[in-house]
Amino acid sequence: QVQLVESGGGLVQAGGSLRLSCTASGRTFSSYTMGWFRQALGKEREFVAAVTWRGGNTNYADSVKGRFTMSRDNTKNTVYLQMNSLKPEDTAVYYCAADRHASGSYNSRANYDYWGQGTQVIVSS
Fold first, then answer.
1. Which of 24, 50, 43, 52 is nearest to 89 (CA)?
2. What is the pLDDT of residue 125?
3. pLDDT tens-digit series, residues 3-24
4. Fewer CB within 10 Å of terminal CB in the chain, N or C?
């Protein structure tokens, strides 16, 4: 399987910024859809952002639009999530995911084949 490793999580004050990274190893294809999801304590895992490796349309959840930016570096097989103006409600474990079929259903976690272990983001008030 493809291995995904997230990094960059941590503790930050409200209004601060963090940049998450997700690096893929193993068999990958430029056509894979890459996504970010998050899961807060006691809540379901929810969609955050997604993009194709070739740099197709980038999509964001309404809750993070204008504050978060997803980008990619194909030479490093890495995607990023730049998180600005963080709020306490952004506190969650953030997961990187890959859809090998590039199904187009970017916001549905059931369509993703590979998942990282997650990285914790805590935003204090």
1. 43
2. 93
3. 999 999 999 999 999 999 999 9
4. C
